[in-house]
User: Which sequence fits this backbone?
């Protein structure tokens, strides 16, 4: 019997095919193959929200190959990812290939290992319609919000804006925090620290002012601090009480999607998109030489803390062998997932706990090694014994007042021997305290009053925002990273170091949404909607009823907003600067366009001078050829491709005029000085480097802003093909497309054409 297995990702094809051997062919859908159309709404509201699914652009060839291949095989298995989106892809594949939904042809595996793949094949099931409907309802819900609300924002604020069910709430959370910071009024307070010494051991330590008569006292001003200092002046510091106790610290549970993103942000400085990209690679499989191709971690989109018995046993064996029985808990550690978690999944863990990170370091990229080490250490530590601490709190009397010192010593390190979780909040440093006894007089070295002011709540980082979204029930594991990327790409949020800062545009949009679409940006409403979609997944709620209930109110709200804002347009505030226009001498202001911030002359329209602003805040010369094209008072959008002109000794190949070096969105390029009549451009370096695998256009070598060479299609504006890897002279033996060279520990040539999958080890 000949069997065909269809996966989502091509990266898993080679590994899984090796596990199965003869009698099995493995192909990939390369992600989604169908979706709602881009150009029209695509949802028939009048007929129970029936979606109009269409084949995705550039997927026609893949679909055709799958259809042809399906006819050759006796049995077809749908092995897409084990989540809602994977179930939706499986449903669409079954529909396109004419497979029966009554047939048990859906297989899933939580990890790409031979045992898991074979176990999945032994236990096929039907496509889960509840999972599919949950994903379908979520997609249609997002289409309703995005497709109906975005045009409203275009008319009332600016073209190119977007609204989203989750992204709008995320923006509101960040805007609200920024408003808290702006409204914050610092409050003065004082502390008093006494540097003391135990005469017997000569150990110095710091005790902090606590209060009086066992009650804590807040020192609100300098006068109060001075009165306390005057009161204890010349008085002895005597140990009044010593309290010792034992405390335990429990290990953090293994990673879920959100906690992995948070910890990678804190420990590694990774953005969530980078973390998920690397985790995907580790899940799909890497070449471990002696061990061959295999996935190193389990599926990385999960909110479950469940661990298989096999994995727990393997972890215990490693801990016992490496650290000894004292580092194993009396009973295995079991962690409870939050309500609504998909318990069919496991937490993120190493597929083989015995594969320690250092043993495979040479087979991984730097990022892969860091993320695998993080996952491995977190999982192993989660199965280790508690850390045991001996804590000590000492109250020290001076006159009528009490000072307090606290510290601890580690009695048994437990899981801390391997791993300690990072925190957003700053923790007090451990103070080593001497063996003090009640009644002992201490030597005072100095006592110092210190003025402080309360600080506003910190701005959100990616880690703390993801934590907040999860705690408030906004979105689900697969949405956190794309949501953050979207609100940054759309210009609602900017990064300042690790902080997420709202732009003026975000403030305007949030004001509008709160006034006219309160439910869309209401945290409780959005969380309740997520809970409803979870009920669809378990078959406890009808997806059409959820959509009908939402749409009825939303449609009324939208029509009311359009009526109330008729003829009204919200203006994005301009930011004043100290810059003076170098053409007319008038002040310059910072405006926000489709591509971010730019500096513009207040003398517009008489003076159309603008400057682009880079991420450092520096300005760059720009012409005004885009004036009047984006709705920002006709002063362009701050992202012209005519920047940093530098004349060179080269003539235009079309009209013979001089060429100039310019800098655009994708680095430097040469452009004709005869623009706009002549729009000839060419890359700075190299000539034709190959043929584009997407549209068959010419590939040129180009330079990024950082000076790194990359390669992109001459038709980039339409086909969007670009790549870091170097094109080769050789053609793909399977499809004759240009091959690319991936450089690493082992050089490989591969074909970038979708659906081909050819690769070979380079002999160079």
Assistant:
């Amino acid at each position: 019997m000949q069997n065909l297995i269809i996966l989502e990702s091509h990266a898993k094809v080679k590994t899984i095919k090796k596990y199965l051997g003869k009698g099995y062919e493995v192909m990939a859908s390369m992600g989604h193959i169908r979706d709602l159309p881009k150009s029209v709404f695509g949802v028939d509201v009048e007929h129970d929200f029936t979606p109009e699914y269409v084949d995705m652009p550039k997927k026609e060839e893949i679909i055709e190959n799958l259809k042809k291949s399906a006819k050759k095989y006796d049995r077809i298995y749908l092995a897409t990812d084990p989540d809602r989106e994977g179930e939706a892809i499986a449903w669409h594949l079954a529909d396109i290939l004419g497979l029966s939904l009554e047939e048990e042809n859906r297989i899933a595996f939580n990890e790409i290992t031979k045992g898991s793949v074979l176990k999945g094949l032994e236990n096929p099931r039907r496509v889960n319609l509840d999972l599919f409907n949950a994903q379908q309802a979520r997609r249609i819900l997002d289409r309703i919000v995005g497709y109906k609300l975005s045009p409203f924002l275009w008319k009332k604020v600016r073209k190119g804006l977007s609204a989203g069910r989750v992204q709008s709430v995320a923006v509101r959370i960040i805007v609200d925090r920024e408003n808290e910071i702006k409204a914050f009024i610092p409050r003065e307070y004082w502390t008093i620290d006494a540097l003391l010494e135990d005469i017997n051991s000569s150990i110095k330590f710091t005790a902090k002012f606590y209060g009086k008569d066992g009650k804590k006292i807040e020192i609100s001003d300098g006068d109060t601090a001075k009165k306390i200092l005057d009161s204890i002046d010349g008085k002895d510091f005597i140990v009044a009480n010593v309290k010792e106790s034992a405390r335990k610290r429990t290990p953090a549970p293994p990673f879920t999607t959100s906690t992995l993103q948070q910890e990678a942000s804190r420990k590694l400085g990774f953005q969530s998109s980078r973390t998920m990209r690397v985790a995907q690679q580790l899940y799909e499989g890497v070449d471990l030489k002696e061990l061959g191709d295999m996935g190193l971690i389990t599926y990385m989109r999960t909110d479950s803390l469940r661990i298989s018995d096999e994995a727990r046993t393997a972890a215990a064996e490693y801990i016992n062998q490496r650290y000894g029985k004292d580092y194993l808990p009396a009973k295995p550690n079991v962690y409870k997932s939050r309500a609504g978690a998909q318990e069919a999944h496991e937490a993120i863990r190493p597929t083989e706990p015995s594969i320690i990170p250092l043993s495979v370091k040479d087979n991984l990229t730097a990022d892969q090694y860091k993320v695998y080490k993080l996952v491995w250490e977190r999982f192993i530590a989660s199965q280790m014994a508690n850390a045991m601490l001996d804590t000590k709190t000492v109250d020290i009397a001076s006159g009528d007042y009490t000072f307090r010192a606290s510290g601890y010593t580690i009695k048994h390190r437990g899981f801390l021997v391997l791993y300690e979780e990072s925190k957003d909040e700053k923790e007090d440093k451990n103070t080593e305290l001497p063996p003090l006894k009640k009644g002992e007089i201490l030597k005072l070295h100095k006592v110092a009053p210190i003025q402080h002011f309360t600080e506003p709540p910190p701005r959100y980082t990616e880690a703390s925002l993801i934590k907040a979204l999860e705690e408030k029930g906004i979105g689900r594991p697969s949405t956190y990273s794309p949501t953050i990327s979207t609100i940054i790409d759309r210009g609602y949020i900017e990064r300042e170091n690790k902080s997420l800062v709202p732009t003026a545009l975000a403030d305007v949009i949030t004001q509008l949404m709160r006034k006219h679409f309160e439910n869309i940006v209401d945290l409780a409403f959005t969380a309740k909607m997520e809970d409803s979609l979870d009920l669809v997944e378990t078959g406890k709620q009808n997806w059409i009823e959820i959509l009908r209930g939402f749409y009825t109110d939303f449609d009324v709200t939208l029509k009311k907003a359009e009526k109330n804002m008729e003829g009204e347009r919200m203006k994005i505030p301009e930011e004043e600067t100290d810059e003076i226009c170098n053409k007319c001498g008038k002040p310059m202001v910072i405006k926000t366009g489709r591509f971010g911030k730019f500096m513009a002359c207040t003398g517009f329209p008489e003076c159309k001078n603008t400057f682009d602003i880079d991420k450092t805040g520096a300005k760059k010369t720009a012409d005004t050829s885009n004036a009047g094209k984006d709705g920002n008072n006709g002063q362009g959008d701050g992202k012209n491709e005519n920047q940093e002109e530098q004349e060179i000794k080269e003539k235009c190949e079309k009209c013979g005029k001089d060429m100039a070096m310019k800098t655009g969105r994708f680095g430097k390029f040469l452009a004709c000085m005869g623009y706009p009549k002549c729009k000839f451009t060419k890359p700075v370096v190299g000539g034709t480097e190959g043929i584009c695998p997407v549209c068959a256009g010419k590939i040129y070598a180009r330079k990024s802003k950082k000076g790194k060479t990359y390669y992109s299609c001459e038709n980039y504006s339409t086909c969007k093909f670009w790549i870091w890897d170097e094109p080769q002279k050789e053609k793909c033996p399977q499809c004759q497309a240009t091959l690319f060279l991936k450089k690493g520990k082992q050089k490989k040539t591969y074909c970038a054409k979708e659906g081909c999958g050819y690769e070979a080890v380079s002999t160079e």
